[in-house]
# Entry
Amino acid sequence: MAKQANVKLAASPAQLEQFYREMLQIRRFEEKCNQVYRAGKAGGYLHVYIGMEATAVGWLDAIRKGYDYIIAAYRDHAFPLLLGSDPVATMAEIMGRKGGMSAGKGGSMHLYDYERGFFGGWGIVGGHTPLGAGLAFAAKYRGEDRITLCFLGDGAANAGVFFETLNMAGLWDLPVIFIIENNEFAMGTRIEYHAADTELWKRGLPFGIESERLDGMDVLKVREDAKRIVDWVRKNQRPYVVEVMNYRFAGHGAADNDQSLYRTQEEVEKAKQRDPIALLEAYIRANNVMTEEKMEAIQAECEDWAERVTEEADASPHPDPAEVYDHVYTDLMPEEGH
Ligand SMILES: Cc1ncc(C[n+]2csc(CCOP(=O)(O)OP(=O)(O)O)c2C)c(N)n1
Ligand SMILES: [Mg+2]
# Structure
């Protein structure tokens, strides 16, 4: 065991290890996603969360996992992994296989695990935000104290439906947190080109909604802010808007080789100096929380884990073509009570 420095840590050693492992697992899993996509083993479209991991890790640590609700856009791989969904079923879905969590018919953009409170994975930009308000409405209507996290992108924050959703959330006091992940880019365009007001945190203000801008790269800061806001929303039964500043290291999607005109490689390299995994490693080292050997062992473990998960998912067969019309409408509807 490394010698502990005599300072108060921002999280316990066990929690720091958990955040480190979670961010590494998401990173290694998504590198595999890119590989399977490029090998022609994943159909449709696929968007990785590389560089943004601290946001999901910090926010999901602040909720009651399996009780609170989560809904997101298509950059959705981190959510089921953090909620404890079967990683093989997650990868199998991305590869369009029978063992996938949406029976292999949804793909990367339509991950779903209703039992753990994860309501997708949605491809229409901004289109899931009223569904997030609806989840919060349902919980409130039933007298439960569940809250909903609705993740959306900076591009989605311009969608008309998001403004209507904010109005209803403010009007009906819905316990939903809209987490606008400002990764600086929509699809092939940067924030200054797509938003008239680039301070997206202000989106909630006209609707009387508490709103603020927060860091999304330092997992310890993210978690501290997230805890404060989650507790506030649960207690006050009111909505909240946060703009979380993170950065998309990869191209928009797996098919985007990032030879883009909207940013330079120098800019990307500069952003990578605040890689959330490296920031946590620096904190762990500065506070002697783990030895170098222990960190290397966790890295190796996460790499093996991603390899194994991908191999197992690849062993799952493709869905039977005769099932193509199954699950289209009501077959997967949840039972009474949710
Ligand atoms: C209604 C709609 N318009 C356009 C698209 C095409 N599209 C896919 S992703 C995207 C950019 C969204 O950017 P952002 O909300 O910042 O999310 P990010 O990709 O950064 O996670 C666009 C325009 C779409 N899917 N839906
Ligand atoms: Mg974006």
